[in-house]
Amino acid sequence: MKETEQQRRRQQQQQQSIWSPRERKCLFLLQHKRNNTRASLLQIHAFILRGALETNTNLLTKFITTCSLVVGIHHARRVFDQMPQKDDTYLCNTMIRAHLETRQFVESISLYRQLRRHSGFSPNNYTFSWLAKSCGLSLANWEGQQIHNHVTKAGFGSNLFTSTSLVDMYTKFGAMGCARKVFDEMTERSQVSWTALICGYARNGDMDNAKELFDQSPEKDSAAYNVMIDAHVKLGDMECARRLFDEMPERNVVSWTNMIDGFCNIGDVGSARLLFDTMPEKNLFSWNSMIGGYCLNKQPDEALRLFHEMLTTTSFEPDKVTVVSVLPAIADLCALDLGGWVHQFVKRKKLDRATNVCTGLVDMYAKSGEITKARQVFDEMPEKETATWNALINGLAVNGRAEEALEVFLKMTHSGFKPDEISMLGVLSACNHNGLVEEGKMWFKAMGEFGLTPKIEHYGCMVDLLGRAGCLEEAETLIDSMPYEANGIVLSSFLFACGCAKDVERAERIRKRVINMEPWNDGNYIMFRNLYSKESRWKDVEEIKGLMSRGGAKKEAGCSVIEVNSRLWEFIAGDKVHPQWEMGIVMSVIMGKGLPSTQMLNLALGTLYSRFVDRDVNNFEDFHVAILDIFNTFNESLPGKHYDAPTRKEIEECFAEWEGAKESERKKVFIEFMKKKVKLSKLDDATMITGLVTPPAAMAAKRAGESVPQLRIIKSIPDVVFVPSATVLALVSVKLSRRIFQGNVASTS
Question: Which residues form the PPR repeats (predicted)?
Answer without folding.
Answer: 190-220, 221-255, 283-318, 385-419
